[in-house]
Specification:
The chain is mainly beta. The termini are far apart. The radius of gyration is 20 Å and the shape is elongated. It has a seven-stranded antiparallel beta sheet with strand order 1-2-3-4-5-6-7, with no helix packed on it. Helices cover 13% and strands 48% of the residues.
Length: 163
């Protein structure tokens, strides 16, 4: 188990951090479990997070835009502290000594602005990695992966611009 509380940026995706870590923060907890399936081994990780900061709710930005007949503006909708929740799961599984598979799934609440990190409300990714010993470079690894990220309906609507 790993857990931590982290400082949030003062502005969304900003570099300067808010020092009020008891008021604005990102909490994370991760549980990891190693397993063996026949001769292959792997790890399953469960992650939960909670971010608290002055963030906009997408529905608030859409309501303001509708009332003013303007384009949605998240900055105008940042009127108070909000909390965003999310969960994720990751699996890494070794097929042989130098070949492995991995997959990750994530889901966030989709109602609250993404304050730090990637603009997505759900994602799925997976792939394969192969160690370089096969071609005489044991310190190398090559991989092939794919990812799909999605936005909630409210999130997507708050990003649309007319014209």
């Amino acid at each position: 188990m790993r857990a931590g509380r982290f400082a949030q940026p003062k502005q969304p995706n900003g570099l300067r951090l808010d020092s009020r870590i008891l008021r604005h923060y990102g909490d994370q907890i991760e549980l990891a479990r190693d397993y063996a399936w026949g001769e292959q081994s792997g790890t399953v990780r469960l992650l939960a997070f909670r971010n608290r900061a002055v963030m906009a709710r997408y529905d608030d930005a859409l309501a303001l835009a509708a009332a003013d007949e303007t384009t949605p503006d998240l900055a105008a909708a940042r009127t108070g502290e909000q909390t965003k929740f999310g969960v994720g799961v990751g699996v890494e599984h070794r097929l042989s000594g130098d070949v492995g598979l991995f997959a990750r799934l994530m889901h966030a609440d989709g109602r609250t602005e993404t304050y730090a990190f990637t603009e997505d409300d759900a994602s799925a990714s997976g792939g394969v990695s192969i160690g370089g010993a096969r071609w005489g470079r044991s310190a190398d690894t090559v991989g092939l992966a794919g990812a799909l990220n999605t936005l909630s309906v409210a999130h997507g609507a708050s990003c649309r611009r007319e014209g």
